[in-house]
Amino acid sequence: MRSIRVLRNIVTNYLRFFVTGVLGFVLTPLMVRLLGDGPYGLWVTIFSVTGYFGLFDQGIRPSLVRYVSRDHTRGDQDGLSRTLSSALAL
User: Fold this and answer.
1) pLDDT 10s digits, 48-82
2) Which listed site, 11, 25, 53, 81, has its alpha carbon 20 to 30 Å from 33?
3) Under a CB-based contact definition with an 8 Å cutoff, are residues 17 and 10 in contact?
4) CA–CA separation, 71 vs 47, rounded Å?
5) Contacts of range 74-82, beta carbons closer than 8 Å, 24 or more positions apart
């Protein structure tokens, strides 16, 4: 049962990469034609820079989900406050 789920996840992951690549090849000329060279370049630059923000995340989001749900389930308001304060500070 587990191997079927792993195989399904692998196939859907590769399918997602393939579809994303095809969409990129199809949409790029269309967007250059509609936006023009300058605005398209600005659009690509903005999305590239914001994409790099994910590198600075350093696992804060998954950790925040884990510890907030844990503290909320336990009813630990102090722990919840410490977790959220630490995440905001980082």
Assistant:
1) 888 888 777 777 888 888 999 999 999 999 999 99
2) 53
3) no
4) 35
5) none
- Mean pLDDT within 1-17: 91
Task: Residue 90: name the closest of 69, 65, 68, 59 by CA.
Answer: 59
Look up residue 72 and give its amino acid. Answer: H
CA angle (29, 30, 32) in 5-degree steps: 65
| H or E element in which residue 4 lies | helix 2-35
85/81 Cα distance (integer angstroms): 6
Tell me if the pTM is above 0.70: no
- Backbone φ and ψ for 7, nearest 5 degrees, come out as -65, -45
In the prediction, which pLDDT does 2 show? 82
